[in-house]
Design brief:
Blueprint: H1 4-7, H2 11-33, H3 39-60, H4 80-97, H5 100-121, H6 128-134
Length: 136
């Protein structure tokens, strides 16, 4: 592992990574290990929610994949931003209304869509995280 590509990346990318990594680990703990409904689960969920909102907002400004593209630098991966924010709305709405099925679906959707799938794309050759884990 070589952190140099990440440390040399633009500030917005470093902030994005600084929010997404803890969100991934907290989300994993919430889904797999935490006892649902406990105070620890609620506090962890609140932190996860805040990190995911921050991750989504910072993602708007990460345009290095297609900087001169026809859509102001946005790429197809940016379509996940409104989907993630909508999913986070479902996470909170489900929890606050006691609709556990909605809450669970929204949690899985945001976790797998925004963290696992989108995160997987960052490991493709030519991307910063690919260089971090696998070299240039």
């Amino acid at each position: 592992m070589n952190l140099t590509p990440l440390l040399e990346a633009p500030l917005i990318i470093r902030i994005h990574v600084a929010t997404v990594i803890p969100a991934f680990f907290i989300g994993t703990w919430l889904i797999i290990f935490s006892r649902k409904g406990t105070k620890a689960h609620r506090v962890g969920g609140t932190i996860y929610f805040a990190l995911m909102v921050a991750t989504s907002i910072t993602a708007i400004f990460v345009r290095s994949l297609n900087p001169n593209g026809p859509f102001f630098g946005f790429s197809a991966i940016h379509l996940l931003i409104p989907l993630t924010l909508y999913g986070l709305y479902g996470v909170v709405r489900g929890a606050l209304t006691g609709n556990i099925a909605m809450h669970r679906r929204a949690v899985f959707g945001t976790y797998f869509g925004a963290l696992v799938i989108a995160g997987g794309f960052t490991l493709l050759p030519g991307r910063i995280m690919h260089a971090v884990f696998f070299g240039p």
